[in-house]
Amino acid sequence: MTGASGRVLVVDDNKVIRQLIRVNLELEGFEVVTAADGAECLEIVHRVQPDVVTLDVVMPRLDGPRTAARLREDPRTRHTGIVMVSAGSVPAGVGDAYIAKPFEPAELVETVRRLAGLRLVGDHSSCDHPACDHGADGAEGSDEPPADPHRGRTAATSGP
Length: 160
Known about the structure:
Elements: E1 7-11, H1 15-27, E2 31-35, H2 38-48, E3 52-56, H3 64-73, E4 81-86, E5 97-100, H4 105-121, E6 147-148, E7 153-154
Parallel strand pairs: 1-2, 1-3, 3-4, 4-5
Antiparallel strand pairs: 6-7
Domain Response regulatory: 7-116
Region (Disordered): 131-160
Keywords: Phosphoprotein
């Protein structure tokens, strides 16, 4: 079952950091799955189907920037939110957000919540993904709600 706030895949080679992120996100209602490096992330991401992936930058086998690039290349994960979490710098254009280590748990949770909300609700007004066409959310005269290009879900609607 998906957590009330969404599903997050936490990827870090440091077990203590993985657990710290996991606990903070679970306390806020997220369902969390962890991976020890980028290679493991890519092995499980299609089964897990996360709304957001947190990635450490420096990891064995496959580092964070290369993992993020592979996630963006895959149509199934292209629009999954990516938060880079690192003590060092992150190359420009990698991920949707950056959190510096040591991080404030509240900042991490809020960043993940914001990115998960974009994917769950279908609000792409602040996203910069090329596949999002904010001006053409649906066919004119259609009773169907607009498709969510980020998750393959239908965007939430309210009212009659």
